[in-house]
């Protein structure tokens, strides 16, 4: 799957940035939490044993690749999950799975023809 950078798709994040963001356990847990509902920075940071500036860096990575969006109302910044990049990652993984299933099916067919020739 090729992610185009034409003006129509300029807002779609590169797939590598999505997977890079999800490679960190803290960011994965934040995404899992945001699956339930939007949350403020303090709500999201509460279960983690790290300084707030360090935690905010994780949020910046997630926002930078488009996995989350934030809004500020007064002094409270609220984050919500953006499903489009997750769908992009899901589609990419499905394409990879289909490719490997085809390759394995072809290999299986080849092995079966070799077995039939030995008989």
Automatic annotation (TrEMBL):
Lineage: superkingdom: Bacteria
PANTHER family per the UniProt record, alphabetical: SLL0088 PROTEIN, TRANSCRIPTIONAL REGULATORY PROTEIN
Cross-referenced Pfam families: HTH_20
Species per Swiss-Prot/TrEMBL record: Mesorhizobium robiniae
GO MF annotation, one: DNA binding
InterPro entries: ArsR-like_HTH (IPR011991), HTH_ArsR_DNA-bd_dom (IPR001845), WH-like_DNA-bd_sf (IPR036388), WH_DNA-bd_sf (IPR036390)
NCBIfam families attached to this UniProt entry: HTH_metalloreg (NF033788)
CDD domains: HTH_ARSR
Keywords: DNA-binding
Record SMART domains: HTH_ARSR
Protein's UniProt name: DNA-binding transcriptional ArsR family regulator
Domain HTH arsR-type: 7-101
